[in-house]
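PRC domain containing protein
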Amino acid sequence: MERIWSYAPESGHVEGEDLSGCTVVGRDGTIGHVDRQADHYGMRHLVVDTGVWVFGRSVLVPVGVVAGIDTEARKVTLSCSRAEVKAAPRFETDSETMDREYLVAVGDYYHRLPPEAVTP
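Predicted structure tokens:
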């Protein structure tokens, strides 16, 4: 499950690069934009603002589902669908980005997705 918290080598991730504001796209359409990046307990993730798509809430996405980063287009592509992101454990408060149990639950959810959803 550790790989779910690390960028895939082929994702195009550059260490230290700020992805805030980038559009986030799933296999089947736009999900939202990166609000911020975090790395608590070695569990690197993106907090994605979904706008009105998921009733104005944010979702937490482990970086292991990032399939590609296009810095010029300011776009982050995920290897999962919008429905899979929407079905992830609900993100309610900022403090959850530092809650180890919540992060483990999110990582477990994404880790259990079908292989094509996690592997670009």
